[in-house]
Each structure stands twice: as structure tokens, then as C-alpha cells.
Amino acid sequence: MTTVENLDLLDERRARHALAVEGLSKAYGEGADAVRILEDLDVRVDPNEIVCIVGPSGVGKTTLLRCLAGLLAPTAGTVTFGTDRMTGPISQVGVVFQDYSRSLLPWMRTGENVAFPLQGKGMRRAERHALAQQCLSAVGLPDAGRKYPWQLSGGMQQRAAIARALAYQSEVLLMDEPFASVDAQTRFDLEDLVLDLRKRLGISVVVVTHDIDEAVYLADRVVVLSGHPATVVDVVDVPFGQDRDQIQTKAEPAFTEARARILGRIRH
Amino acid sequence: MTAMLLNPLRILLRLLERLWLVVALFAIWWFASANSTSVYFPALSRIWDALRRGVTDGTIRSDLAYSLTNIVIGILLATVVGAAVGIAVGELEGLRRVLDPFLQFARSVPQSALIPIVIGALGIGQAPKIYMIAFACVWPVLLNAIDGVRAIAPEVRDMAKAYRIPRRLWLRRMVLPAAMPQIMAGIRVALAVGVVVMVVSEIFSATEGIGHFINNAGSVFDIPSAWAGTLIVGALGYVLSVAFVLVEKATLGWYFKSAGTASGAARLRTRGKAAK
Amino acid sequence: MTISEKVYPPTAAPSSAKARRRRGAGVRKRTRLLLWQLVTVAVIAALWTLVYETGALSREIVPPPWDVVHEFLVLAVTGAFWTALATTVSNALIGLAVGVVVGVPLGLLLGISAAAYRSAQFLIDLCRSFPVIALLPVMVLVLGATSEMETVVVFSGVLWPILLQTIYGARRIDQVIADTVRSYRIPALLRFAKVVLPNAAPMAATGVRIAASASILIAVGVEVLSLTPGMGGNLARAQTDGAPALAMAYVVYAGLVGLVLNKVLWIAESRVLSWNRRTTEAER
Asked: How far apart are the CA of C111 and the nearest CA of chain B, in angstroms?
């Protein structure tokens, strides 16, 4: 389910740059009316790292992710990819949204959906579809190309959305609560897929999630946001390396410690 | 085994269930009017004779061809213009807000009211009729196209922005298909409006066309022919709407099939009914 | 781009000063919108004048805008005009009322009984795609160019949208609700009154609104063709008398009547069916 094949074309995905925000602030409105969401955040994602962002509901995790994606301009501070400042979306950073059923276009087959952003980059038809097929195989959907998205289950649709981000030559995958809408079993499979992709392809991943267990399981570092406006209240290092397992890893004492520490931060 | 044998029977029964009422009504009409001496309500058999006559001597056929040409060209024109302008206005929110009251007014104008004016000015030729049909039909398509574009989920726009989809691709392969269900609903309404305008323009002033046929028959007191023409118009309206449903199924196959799934059903709910 | 900001609007507890400032911003936005709309009117008037002056389109379709405005204002103070307006509107509304009285109960019946609906479906499809106005020559022969004839034609036109929408509303009970009702074995009459009726009401109301616009259109159409007394008749006569500006003024009035009627019904619907506001908005 989570094995990765055909790494040749996907070798370009190997992450070489760090994605970072420095002194990031975001507010809506102007002057005295302004609503400050984020205040002076420093978050860094090094190559081949998985960073999870957690925090209470409504704290601004999604806002932070959008700034990282270049979809939202910060009020203050910078967003940098490598050494360049980001002023808009770039192809090396791909986004996987929570509501996959709306972001996959229902009038196109899954394979076309995955290949579609490449059409915008001017890639030729044969190349696009070959790359799309590779990415679909990479996420465990080798036969889904001819099917329409609404013929696939929720978990498969989310995999397809991940495949699309991969195909777009993303070194960094930004995921906004990607597994919130699927059932628990599928969620475990998808989490393992993310770990697998990170290990085999060398990409970096940022996952916004409200599920602390998921965050500790996936991350190398967990960034905890809290407060109004939101600030980084803690950064927890997770020492499990790149090989993890749903049963073993979650049974380790370090897992429980990290979990308790994060939960404590959020609830106070 | 028995299930397989019953299947054609079941299909036949289902067909009968849907047809019996119409067939029965026609039969009642036929027999109830058989001995009618009323001038205005002739026997159905006489109407049928008039119909056959009209078809065989070619009058109804040529009139029908004329009317059909007008409405098909008119609708096509209205679809292309309405969809294009509607998408443009739908994408430009500021423009849409400014133009909204004007568009609402234009759609409320009874198109039949414009017919005397247009015919009085441009004459009774074929082109003015096509323009009138197109003008009347463009409003439902345009307004529905605007609604369709506005209803595009923000997630779709986000995705396009995140993947930096270029403008032309955005319009051609994202906006147009996304708005298509609404546009098709608009075309359905436009069809009904178009048929009305077609008939009225031909009754009002024409030398050809099925509306003219009816009017003419009425004025020479050939009542059976007038009724026959009326029935033909009804059949025309029905055939056009059946044709439309087939076209809709072909182009929106993905839309209807996706409605079978949970995520698709949510999409279907936001399609809404086209206001006439 | 501000798409994201629309999706995640700011939520802050408004103090009175902040609220006042926000209201101020709203007023400023509306005045700006109004200004742009006045500009559009000016642009239209300018183009119209240009077309008239150059004679690009026949002077008969394009009377000078100031003439139209003049006739428009004159009509407003002419008693005969208001009588004609009243005639047209009353014919339309009577036809509409009869359509509601016949269409809604029939629609509910057909919506509840799947078998009845299957039998009637073909007939309804035939009749709804029939352009009512084609009946006109025959109708004129039978009933003459009278208000009664007009009402009958209006009725036969508005029946279908009302019927169809009511059937649709009565049929589309949410499966979960249907199952709940069945498992509690709610008796038929109570089920009708408390589940079917309120569920069908919003769709039926939409049908009435659609039918209302159609009623004006049909009424005017009938009058234009058969010169039955009313706005449409006056319009057609104005055209044949060679007074295109007057005819245009009538057209504008006809449009306004339709618009006003639609708005009135829309408000009435949202008052009576306020609980359905949320769904109605989405379905619009």
C-alpha cells in the first residue's frame, strides 16, 4: 500500500532548500480595527525534514500554512525558500488541501487531474501523463488514472491529491489537515505513506494537524502554536528517525512524553 | 431464470405505466369529438386529416423547417454570447455588482413586448426573427453563467492559485466545466423562452413559419389546420426539450454520475434551480 | 489576492467605536457602488444618443432617449395608463392564483404517490414544453380578445412551473428524515402536515415566484398579439401608430412591473419561510 516505485523521474524531488518564515506576522484589517492572527513567528523546515504544526482550533495554523505556500502575503516578516524571498506560490512548494473532494476536478479523470498543473507549465502531453502515472504509482494508486475522482474512496482521493503535488515537482509538501476527513484505518495508511515518501524521495513535509498523536508520529519537530495572537509556544524534537511503525513507535516512552508535553502546552 | 424472463415483460409494463394516461386522453378526445359540429372544436379525426394534408403537400414541412432554423440559430447564438459574457462578468466581481440591477431589469422585460418594435423597424424577414430569439434567450444563459462562475468553490480557486494555472487554461478547463451545469440549466430556460418568441414573432407578422401557419389557418377559418398547427408546435417544443436532455446527459455525464457519491451530492445541492 | 481573506474572515468582538467605523466603511462602499451604477446609466444614455444621431439602427427601434424618458413620465400621470396597468396585472395575478390553487394540491398529490407521478410524467413533460402562446389564435377564435381569455392563457402557462416545483419539493424528502418518520410510524395525516408540507413549501414557493414572472410575460405577450386591453395592447398600438418612444416607455414599465413583483415575492418568501433561508440561499 505504501511502497514507492519508479523513482527515476521523481529524483528531482529531492529537497535541497529550506523553507522558512522569519518574524512572520499576519493581521486582517487596518489600524486600530486590525485583528492580529499571527505574531512574530519563526518556523524553519530543513531539507528532508517533517515538521508538524499543532495548536488549538482557530489559532491560525492554516493561516501560517497559507503564508508558507505563498497564497497569503504576510503583514510583517519574510517567507524564504532557500535564499530567495517568496512573494507568491512557487513550483517547488506543493499544497495538499483538506477538502480533496473539491480540489480534484470532477470532470477530469484522476490521471488528468494529476497531470493538469503540468499543462500550465507547458509540459508536453506524453510527458505529463507519464509523470502523472509515476506519481500515482508512487502513492499506491497505479490503476486509478482512468477513473474519475468521485469513483475513488476518500483515502484514495487524498492520495491522488498528494500525487498531484508531487508531480508538480514539489520538494516541499504543505498539507493542511490532510487526513481529517478520512477514517482512522485509512489515516494510518496515509501517515505511513508520508513517511515513506519522505524517506524514499527525500522531500520535506509540513503538516498542519489537530491530532497530536499524528503530529508526534510523523514529525521530526512539532511546532506548537497558541494564544491570541498566535505565537510559537514550544518546539518539540521527536527523536525517532526516519523509520517508524504505527505499533512500535507509539509504544515508546518518548512518544508519550512528547505527547504529554505538547498537550500540556495547548491546554494552558 | 424466471427473473430473466420477466425482464422484458417488466420493461413493457413500465413503459405502459408511463404512456397509458396520454394515450387514454387522446382516445377520449378522439371519440368525444367524433361527431362534433362545433366550429371551434372540430373532431380530432379532422384535425388529423388536416395535419396529414399539410405534411404531404409540403406547407407544414417548409414552415417547420423555417421555424426550426430560426430557433436553433438563435439559441446557439445566445448560448455562445451568454456563456462568454456571463463568465467574464462572473469573474469580475466588481463589474457584476455594478451591472446586477441592469441585468435583472433586462431579464424581466417581457420579450414579446419588444417584438412589435423590432418587427416594425426591421421588417418581417428571417434575420430580425433570429436576432429577437437570440436577444430573448441570451438573458437566462448569461445570468446562469454568472451564477455558475460565482458558485465555484473557493478550494478550486485556491488550487488554481497554488499551482499557478495560467489564465487561459483556468478559463477553458476549470471555469467553463465548473459553470457548465448552471449554464445548461440556463439553456433549458432559454429554450422555452425561445420557442415562445419564435411563435409570437411568426404570429405577429410573417410570411413563413409554423406560427404564421396557425395564424393564417385561423384567419381563413380553417380551424382544423389551426389546431393541427398548434399540435405541431407542441410536438416541436417537446422534441426540442428531449433533444436538450440528451445533449445535457452527454456533456454533463460526469456531473450526474458524480452526484451518486457523497461529495458529488453536495455539489449538486449548490447547483440550485434556475429562476425563469 | 484576497480570496483567502474572504474564506477566513476576521472575528473580533466589536466595541462601539469599531462598529461605527465598520458601518461607515459599509456606507462608503454602497455609495461607491451607486456612483458606478449612475456612471453605467450615463454610458448607456450616451451610447444610445450616439446610435440615434448617427442613425446606425433604424430610428424606429431607437427613439431618442429623452423622448422615451418624456413619454415615461407622461404615462405616469395618465389615468388611462394606470387602468391598463391594473388590467394587465390583475389578469396575470388571477391566472396565477388559479394556477396556485390547482397546481399546489395536485403537485403534492403527485409528489406523494410515486405511481401517480409515473403515470402523469409524460403528460406533464408534454404540456410543460408546450409554448402556451401558440394556443393564442385558437383561443382568440373561441373566447375573443378579452380579459377572460387572457386569464385562461396565463393559467395554462403558469400551472406547469408550479406543478413541477411542488412535485419536486414533495418528492425530495431527505432519506434520513423519511427513515426516521417510518421507524416512529407517524400516521399519514400528521406526516403530511408536519413533514411533507413544510418540506415542499420552499420549492413550491420558488415555483410560485417563477410562475409570477411568467404570468406577467404571458399576459403582456397575449395582449401584444391579440390587442386585448392592457399594457401590451397599448404598446402594440403605439408601435403601429408610429410612436416608438411611447412603445419603448411601455416596455420599460413592463420590465419594472416584473421586477417589482419578483422582489415582493422574494421578500414575502423569506419572511414566511425564514427557517429555510440558509438552504434557499445555497440553492439560489
From this structure: 15
